Amino acid sequence: MSKTNAARILDKQGMKYELVEYEVDESDLSAISVSSKLGQNIDQIFKTLVLRGDKTGICVCIIPGGEELDLKKAAHLSGNKNVAMVPVKEILGLTGYIRGGCSPLGMKKKYPTYIDESCLLHDFIFVSAGMRGLQLKIAPPDLIKSASCIVADLVSVLKH
What we know:
By secondary structure, the protein is α/β, with parallel strands linked by helices. It has one domain (5-152): YbaK protein (Alpha-Beta Complex), CATH 3.90.960.10. It is 24% helix and 28% strand. The chain has helices at 5-13, 31-38, 71-77, 88-95, 140-146; strands at residues 17-21, 46-53, 57-64, 83-85, 113-116, 125-131, 134-138, 149-152. Strands 4-2-3-5-8 form a five-stranded mixed sheet. It is globular.
């Protein structure tokens, strides 16, 4: 198993984490699929979303895999009137990562990063390690510190 940039950043910072591999299904890159492959609660599988605001540009939101991002909350938090998901074809150029392998650590540039407050309900969560098929298992306070996250309420109240 090769170390990713995200793992190297955590090593450099002296953070504890675990790299967890799983079988990738190219036809289903959803957090729900990752959750079932890892045998973990969907509430502990966090997805990294890249957004563009109308005023401040790119920002990153990390939310539980089974939830929907509340775009109004994200816009308000990031100082924008509106935010929208960045088109998949732009993710690699902006972050250095591909869809399904976008880690909140080690992006090409340091973007404002927000994480849903529900992360603090868990001893550990999973986020992408920077490639498909590899997750970082990490304590939320360590991820918050490493990725300079702002903790906030980001998810939509309406369940799908």
